[in-house]
Amino acid sequence: MKIVGRILRENREKKGIAIEDLSKKLAISVYYLSAIESGQYNKTPGNPYTLGFIKTYAKHLELDVDFIEKIFRDETVSNKKISNIYLADSTTYNHLNYLKYGTGIFIFLFCGMFFYNFFLSETYLANDYASVDPIDDNLIAIVEEEELKNGIQELKKKQLLADLIQKNYENDKYIASIQDSKITDDEDNVLVNNNINAIAAMNTDKKNSNKSLIFRFTNETWVQIKDSSEKVIISKLMKKNEEFIFHGNEDYLITTGNAGNILLIMDNKDLGKIGKKGQVINSVYLSEITSKY
User: Residue 99: what pLDDT?
Assistant: First the structure.
């Protein structure tokens, strides 16, 4: 309750004047008088009217009107100062909020741009970003030669194992022949058949020796060809569609790291490849290869 309102109400009650009677005498509504006594000036028409109501009220109660007016003005001025302080604090608080949110948005945008420039824009480059130069032919030859050496070592191991098995087999056969010196009719037939097969193979070799033979390479392939005295005739990386022609009736030794890239042409007739793709052939006679056709 405001001081002015309390002074007016207490003096009215001391004189025993009802607020309704006072309202009729002063021609001021009970609502406004109650608002003044309770200090609720916001319910009155405004300060000029409120001050007029208070001065009329104080004069009717025979109070010091100037003193009451001074107190009223002090109260209203204090309220304005408090209101201004509150508004200033609110404005400052809002400014701080704007600054805080603005700084947060700026940091977020900066981080987003940094992420895009550092990660995304550096990742999606041209299509030739990871392109490499084609492999040199010499390097291919070296790789094939190494693979061939490894294949030859494996073949040697298998050949050694086969020799050991054959040796054991021959020893067992020799012991059996001592125990039973007789040769059965079946064994005679086996010997005869073996001789017949050997003669047929020799005839085949002679027949093939008179034919023209050509190796045609379907892709880059390393090959080594030796004559019957094991003298190296050629040892190189053959190009695609390159050919090697065999002359005379001599039997040759063939070594290659990829038999699937070599076509055998006999009398201008394509007989197919001499082996499977990736198959290693190590020192195999040409007659053995042609005998398959």
Answer: 76
